[in-house]
Amino acid sequence: MRKKIIAGNWKMNKDIHETVSLVNEIKDRLNGLSKNNVDVIICPPFTSLVIASGLIKGSTIKLGAQNMYHKDDGAYTGEISARMLKSIGCEYVILGHSERRQYFSETNEFINLKVKQAILYNLIPIICVGETLEGRESKVTKNIIETQIKGVLSGLTQEQINKIIIAYEPVWAIGTGKNATPEQANEVHQFIRKIISRLYSWDTAERLTIQYGGSVNPQNAYDLLSQSDIDGALVGGACLKADSFINIIGAATQCYVK
Ligand code: PGA
């Protein structure tokens, strides 16, 4: 059975003081929760990674970054490498988030370079794909997803494909309070698994973790997470308060108690 993975994407939120409070609160609240089969990841901004890394030591919380560059080091002003992230205890990195595609013109080809570099440094990339509202309304969701998946995973070996997470995040559902219905999301997750099975094998597709993201909150989390092919959530807004983040994790633990 695939493990549920709940990741909090803090985006450009929380200074270092706010980070200390939030991480401590999440840590305290997690202690009271039975987390069998649920992994918890927090992805604060770059400036908070070092302090968060220290705070979560000895806990089950894992650390992720929100982006990275695909070169080892050098004259790339403003960028952060996989090696740097690894050196401060990051185990995950979100790549190809729709906000990076939209505001920073990231393409599938560029994201593909980062994916390969992340894997090289033993960082697990959480690779985001998702259609716009226009895409969904023109009924080309599957074409968009297939192009994105093939682009971001281009050239990945069988061994490399086992070291990634995919996050399906319909752009129209991000930060809008309008989540995909559990059935809509599950249908796309199954489609992603089908593409992976064609590109690699059914076994690989079955093992792949596919998270859903887009307005996940404590109210809708259980229904989304109990779908057959939804293996976790990439949470934005609702991860900025310990209460709602913990309740989403709690919903994930409930999915095993049927
Ligand atoms: P949201 O963001 O939960 O605020 O919709 C999700 C994401 O962008 O990862």
Please tell me about this protein's structure.
- With 258 residues, the chain is of the alpha/beta class.
- It has a single domain (4-254), classed as Alpha-Beta Barrel (TIM Barrel).
- Helix content is 44%, strand content 15%.
- The chain is built from 12 helices and 8 strands.
- Helix 1 packs parallel to helix 12 and helix 5 packs across helix 7.
- The model has no long low-confidence stretch (mean pLDDT 96).
Spell out the CATH superfamily: Aldolase class I
State the CATH class. Answer: Alpha Beta
What kind of sheet is the major sheet? Answer: 8 strands, parallel, barrel
Mean pLDDT, nearest integer? 96
- CATH architectural grouping: Alpha-Beta Barrel
Helix content: 40-55%
How many H/I helices?
A: 12
- Strand order, sheet with most strands: 1-2-3-4-5-6-7-8
| Helix/strand structural class | alpha/beta
| Distinct small molecules bound, one entry per kind | 2-phosphoglycolic acid
Using DSSP, what is the number of strands?
8
Q: End-to-end distance, in Å?
A: 14 Å
Shape descriptor: globular
Write a short abstract of this structure.
Helices cover 44% and strands 15% of the residues. It is α/β, with parallel strands linked by helices. The chain has a single domain (4-254), classed as TIM Barrel.
Topology:
Layout: E1 4-9, H1 16-31, E2 38-43, H2 46-55, E3 62-65, H3 82-87, E4 92-95, H4 98-103, H5 108-120, E5 124-129, H6 133-137, H7 141-152, H8 158-161, E6 165-168, H9 182-199, H10 202-207, E7 209-213, H11 221-225, E8 232-235, H12 242-254
Parallel strand pairs: 1-2, 1-8, 2-3, 3-4, 4-5, 5-6, 6-7, 7-8
Helix pairs in contact: 1-2, 1-12, 5-7, 7-9
The structure holds 2-phosphoglycolic acid (PGA).
2-phosphoglycolic acid binds next to strand 8.
